[in-house]
Every structure is written in structure tokens, then in C-alpha cells.
Amino acid sequence: MLEGAENVRVHMDDGKLVVTIDTRVDLGLSKSGKSTMLGTTHGPVEVPEQDGLVLNVNVYKPAVAA
User: Fold this and answer.
1) Phi and psi at residue 48, in whole multiples of 5°?
2) Domains of the chain: which residue ranges?
3) Residues 1-26: what's their mean pLDDT?
4) Are the C-beta atoms of 9 and 47 separated by less than 8 Å?
5) The pLDDT of residue 59
6) Dihedrals φ, ψ of 3, to 5°?
7) pLDDT band at 66 (very low <50, low <70, confident <90, very high)
8) 22-41: per-residue pLDDT in tens?
9) Least C-beta-crowded within 10 Å: which of 3, 12, 37, 39?
10) How many CB atoms lie within 10 A of CB 11?
11) Which stretches of the chain are assigned E, i.e. beta strand?
12) Closest CA to 63 of 31, 24, 40, 36
């Protein structure tokens, strides 16, 4: 688990960083209201136990018009 991240999971698999985001999760609208957030690290975060490795992720899709 990444500290502060929402719906972003990571693990190492044979030297590869695997990032998993459940695309069924809706975290609500972005600040602009134009996108629906699906996963975010809320800026750069260090990957646990990976000496200095940093990840910065935002996953979103266009917001559905009401």
C-alpha cells in the first residue's frame, strides 16, 4: 500500500513494479469537475522497500454529463 494513495496498489514481481487500479472504483470528480478520478497517489510517493523509487499516478476518465 502506498501512503496517501487512493485505489492504487503496487507490488514487485520478478523485478517489475506492478501497479493495480480497480477501474470500477469512482473517487468522485476532479477539482475542475471535468473528470472522474479512478485512482491517485496525490503526487509523488516513495514505493515501500524500493530504495528511492518514486511513483506519481493519476487515473481518470471524462466525467459523465448530468
Assistant:
1) -55, 140
2) 9-62
3) 95
4) no
5) 98
6) -60, 125
7) low
8) 999 999 999 999 999 999 99
9) 3
10) 12
11) 9-13, 16-20, 35-40, 45-46, 54-55, 58-62
12) 36
Please tell me the distance from the alpha carbon of residue 45 to that of residue 5, in angstroms, as a whole number. Answer: 8
Q: Measuring CA to CA, which residue among 61, 44, 57 is closest to residue 7?
A: 57
- Nine-digit cell at 7? 485505489
Q: Which three cell numbers stand for residue 11?
A: 507490488
Look at residue 23 in the predicted model and tell me its pLDDT: 97
In whole angstroms, what is the distance from residue 44 CA to residue 35 CA?
20
Which residues are within 8 A (CB) of 43 and not within 5 positions of it... i.e. 6 or more apart? 56
